[in-house]
Amino acid sequence: MIKKIFFQIHWFLGITAGLILSIIGVTGAIYSYDQQILQWMNPQSYTVKVESHNKLSPEQIYLHFQQKQPEMQINSINIEQAANASSSINIVKEGARRGKTIYINPYNAEILPEIKGQEFFQFIQRLHRYLTLGDVGKQITGASTLILIFFVLSGIYLRWPKKHSLRQWIALKPQLKGRNFIWDLHAVVGTWMVVFYLIMAMTGLFWSYDWWRSGMYNVLNVTPPSQLKSDNNNKEKGKKDFKKITPEQTATALVTTWTGFNTQIQQPYSSVTFTLPKKADGLLEISFVDATPQHERARNKANFNYELNQLNNVELYQDKKLNEKIMSSMLPVHRGSFFGSIVQFMFMIAALLMPLFFITGLMLYLKRRKQKKQVLSAKNALQATQIDENANNWLIVFASQTGVAEQLAWLTANSLKENKQCVEVCDIQQLKAQTLKNAEYVLFIASTYGTGEAPDTAQSFVKNMMSTSLELNSIQYAVLALGSKEYAESYCAFGEQLYDWFKQNGATALFPLIKVNNASPQDIQQWNQALAMVTASELQQIVLEKHYSDWILKHRQHLNPNSLGSAVHRIELEPMNEQHWEAGDIAEVQPQNSLAHIQAFLTQYPWLSNQDQSVIEQRLSDRDLNSPITYHPDLEQVLAQLPQLPSREYSIASIPSQGALHLIVRQQYNEQNQIGLGSGWLTEYCPISGKLKLHLRSNPSFHLITGHQPIICIGNGTGIAGLMSLLKQRIENQAHDNWLIFGERQRSCDFYYQDQLEDWLKTGKLQHLDVAFSRDQQEKYYVHHLLREQSTRLREWIERGATIYVCGSLQSMARDVDQALIDILGIEKVEQLREKKAYRRDVY
Question: Does the record carry Flavoprotein as a key word (predicted)?
Fold first, then answer.
């Protein structure tokens, strides 16, 4: 919820303040090199021809203008050490607080051409600081700068705490397309800019708000200049009131100071500025710049007592503490020159990139808005669809374990609605007998779970309705059964049971049972065509979309060496672009053939060797090479004969904040002792740093409950994967009422995540950890035995509102656990838990 709030504020401020920050950024980038650009544009003003005699001294320059242009009131005189550098004077100008600077030839005091471009940079400065709107603009830019700090911090938070690799955090991925690339550009480049924008914003506010400026002085423990000036003024009170200095006295002071300064200064300098005294108090202020200054504002200060010929109060910039340097050099820190020329250039690039985030953020917002509009439009269009007065009334019932049947149910409903049919969609666990009897046409879309069982959501229907006889003579029905041919004995078994039950109760089949093997598009299309014939209409094609994305295999670890069971591996996958999933979700991996298998296939069909070898290997990588093919010169026609390898499903063992997707995969072998498709690809054939295809599928029936009510996690073997994701999410949510019951073969080999689980138990993040290792004693001891032993605690937790999660093998664990729960709690209580979705399973 907090992340959603931050996200909403982030994008809202982005499309409002983003444009202002873009202007501030671009103008700041231009203004950061104002002096360099002006010098490049005005070489005739900044440089002169070197002459054989010395440059004019400050006194000679002063007297020159006293004689030639006495109306000029000179504030200060600057002398550059470089032979070809011009000198300058600053004179009083009405309306200009800091006066006007005039560049002169240092050898003859001739006034050089006026600097071109100054008005442009003055405009850029006003645009940067005030948007040229005065105090109103100052408030707008100040608020926008505060928002920039929020952007930086909320942007980090929205990416955090995902433990991405360094590459994931800072490397752009140009191979991405569309919205993914735009997001990557926005997030990754934004990560590059974090430090730059924080420094720019926090120093920029120095000029925006008095409270911020005072706070900076307080935090860095530096006395503000205004306070120093006030203290100095107080010290001056009661002192002698000096008379105004005369031109002759000024000239004498300059002669003495110029000679004395050059004699007494102990270090080289690149330029020196003499501020002409206003009173004859014997003091003349001097500022000078080191020969190699740290930055353009790194100035040293001193006073020269021209009556005593003594240099006093020398304040060297290099001797200041870091906090004092920062507060006396706010502009260089703001533009980056404080840190050196390279960093200043990086600051300039960062400022220029400010519009990038406004543009990419706006594009992401518009794409998201467009998508929402399309969804809303589609929804409204369906709702607004006129029902044909002669249309049939369709009841579509889905029995889904992992969401595929539900998805197909809604796709079927939309297809019928577009043809003006009256449609109602119902979850099988909400289906009432009377609703079924009153239906005219019924479509059942049902998954088969485990080894021929109904999904968990259909258990109540099986018990209460399929065990009895109903009068269904008035109903016409059809069944779409989902399953996998790899489980030949139980392929689509629940769908077949449903089909036969309707027939036995007098219902009329609209068309024969249609079976779908691993969500095959061809099988689904048969369903669509059959419905089209029944409704005598052209139905839109039903497409069960799977969005496979590219992942990198980062790490593979054998978890159970020397185990009595098959090898189990922990697989760590890193996404190539931002991915999101929830605890309890499913990873569908697209297996690929090993190179040896492909080579054996090509040997069997040598005429395929005429094709480009790398191309044919790539195209055959995800095809079922056990299917026979006939000769055809066209590669596409050959591939059409080879079905795609079926995907493999795995419970996800990690949550997105970990930055990687973890799977726990046990190697499977067929009767010919050949390693399984999915387990072989993940544990042996896919190389480390290799690329694989993966589809994230939501599994809402196994998602976490909201709130901090207790949960009981029960599992065995690789089922620990789904339970670990739930526990990790619970712990991240500060919900610690967790109980884990886990079983495997041997404690010494098969206790996966032992260190982490025991640490959670020790720190109170896990209240109970009960384990059963079947082969560690003479008599086999399983999870359901342990559950019966803990029956008292189980009842107590259920009374407290606990939700039960079961993950692992159906045959060897889930059935026995289900029976144990019935024996301990009673069948009615177990059914209540199912109906309340307080008994959730992810079993296979």
Answer: yes
Q: If residue 696 lies in a helix (H) or strand (E), which one and from where to where?
A: strand 691-697
3-state secondary structure of 402: coil
Boundary of a domain, candidates 266, 287, 319: 319
Widest pairwise Cα distance in the chain: 124
Residue where the block lists tokens 């690929």: 592
- Residue-wise pLDDT for 531-577, tens only, equals 988 888 777 777 776 778 899 999 999 999 999 999 999 999 999 88
Same domain, yes or no: 639 and 710: no
Which pLDDT band holds residue 381 (cuts at 50, 70, 90)?
very low
Residue 162: the pLDDT is 55
Asked if residue 733 belongs to a domain, the reply is: yes
For residues 343 and 336, the answer to whether their CB atoms sit within 8 Å is yes
CATH number at residue 481: 3.40.50.360
Instruction: Give the angle 389-394-399 at the CA atoms, nearest 5°.
Output: 165
pLDDT in tens, 183-215: 788 888 988 999 999 999 999 999 999 999 999
Domain that holds residue 279: 52-113+244-319
Output phi, psi for 297, to 5 deg. Answer: -105, 10
Total residues belonging to the chain: 844
Q: Kindly report, residue by residue over 393-420, the tens digit of the pLDDT.
A: 899 999 987 778 888 888 888 888 887 8
Q: What is the pLDDT of residues 468-507, one digit of tens each?
A: 889 999 999 999 999 888 777 789 999 999 999 999 999 9
CA nearest to 76, candidates 246, 273, 250, 299? 273
Shared-domain flag, residues 198 and 339: yes
Report the C-alpha gap between 469 and 272 in whole angstroms: 106
- Phi/psi for 529 (5° steps) reads -65, -40
Chain position carrying tokens 């098959």? 566
Same domain, 1 and 135: yes
Contacts 24+ apart (CB under 8 A), 81-84: 81/268, 81/269, 81/270, 81/271, 81/291, 82/270, 83/50, 83/55, 84/47, 84/48, 84/49, 84/50
User: If you search the block for the tokens 């978890």, which residue do you land on?
Assistant: 559
Q: Can you tell me the distance from the alpha carbon of 241 to that of 258, in angstroms, rounded to the nearest whole number?
A: 26
Report strand pairing: 586-590 vs 691-697. Answer: antiparallel
What is the 3-state secondary structure of 536-569?
A: CCCCCCCCCCCCCEEEEEEEEEECCCCCCCCCEE
Q: Would you state the pLDDT for residue 235?
A: 54
Instruction: Specify whether 585 is located in the same domain as 656.
Output: yes
Q: CA 313: distance to chain centroid?
A: 54
For residue 236, tell me if it sits in a domain. no
Residues 709 and 761 in one domain: yes
pLDDT at 228 over 80: no
Gap between the Cα atoms of 206 and 222, Å rounded: 14
The whole model's pTM is what? 0.56
Tell me how far apart the alpha carbons of residues 415 and 382 are, in angstroms, rounded to a whole number: 10
* Alpha-carbon separation of residue 229 from 232, 274, 331 (angstroms): 5, 19, 21
Distance of alpha carbon 779 from its chain centroid, rounded?
51
How far is CA 726 from each of CA 236, 508, 708, 720, 798, rounded to the nearest angstrom? 73, 44, 13, 10, 18
Report residue 450's pLDDT band, with 50, 70 and 90 as the boundaries.
low
805's torsion region: left (phi>0), alpha (psi -120 to 50) or beta?
A: beta
Task: Write the CATH number for 726.
Answer: 3.40.50.80
* Residue 508: partners with Cβ closer than 8 Å, 6 or more residues away: 475, 476, 477
Beta bridge partners of 310: 305
The DSSP letter of residue 319 is G
List of long-range contacts for 130-134, beta carbons under 8 Å, 24+ apart: 131/20, 131/23
Same domain? 300 vs 404: no
CA–CA gap between residue 407 and residue 544 (Å, rounded): 8
Domain count, the chain: 5
- Is residue 649 located within the same domain as residue 777? no
